[in-house]
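Changelog note: in this version the structure field was regenerated for every chain. One regenerated record is shown below for reference.
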Amino acid sequence: MTSAPPRVLVLRALGLGDLLTGVPALRGVRRAFPTHRVVLALPAALAQAASATGAVDAVLPAEAPHRAVPVLEGWPGGPPEVAIDLHGNGPESRDALAALAPRRLLAYAQPDPSPARPPVWRADEHERERWCGFLAAYGIAADPDDVRLPAPATPSPAPGAVVVHPGAEAPSRRWPAERFADLARTLRAAGHRVVVTGGPKEDALVLEVAQRVRLPAGDVLRGGLPFPRLSALVARAALVVSGDTGLAHLAVAHATPSVTLFGPVSPRLWGPPRTARHVALWKPGPPGDPHGTRPDPRLLRIDVEEAAAASLTLLARGRETWD
């Protein structure tokens, strides 16, 4: 009888953007443990997105409100061979993994004794580089630029369109709906098809923008698209315009030109790679609250004209410039 392969459990039970910025680290783990079964603990709604990375074998559904650390009570069988905390730097995420009694635990909060120089959490590090550096301390190589996802087989609901995504998890990262509408109107006047998207709980926002622009029904994508369709939409879009949210990271994963509007958090920490393909608009200032209840003042300093100029410049170049 063939024995089951040893298992690696990785905890990153956050959102879509967190998953996608964690892809380089996850692929490093996959390469470092080629004979292990890599299991990723994250919200069940992200299972298809996790599978698309090609870095994990299975998903352990796990989530908690307000980005808190979930209890991993659904873990089946005996202890994991290795547990890796890519969720945060506090004892809560470490303790959630330690409760499963893994044979080896890698975490910022309790460094494994093996490395001569344990990883040190730095608040000024970009998220992709942070987790690749964390793994490097344990001899696990990961490339922070290894972000690409394969093009999905699912057809796009709007190939060649400009995707405008006004939503974000927190109000502090949401540019006003009327500005998104003005931007969409400008892009349509320039001859571009514009579609508006939103998450499962953002129908009211999507409809507000669409009604201001008088978009046809087929260009209003409500209800939160299933990941394969959302991925196809972004992969085959001419441009993605959004706030600092998961869709911006999906545009990076598919190398789709993008304009991302940043407010409380600098793009130096969560922004796209510094290439001509992606434009990050941001007004420097002291850090804000990425989970705040009001639009960040720096986000409001980005006007429609600036966003439109960046969008039209990328559209004029066309995707063939980079593809």
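Spot check on this record: The chain has a mean pLDDT of 95. The CA atoms of residues 159 and 195 lie 10 Å apart.
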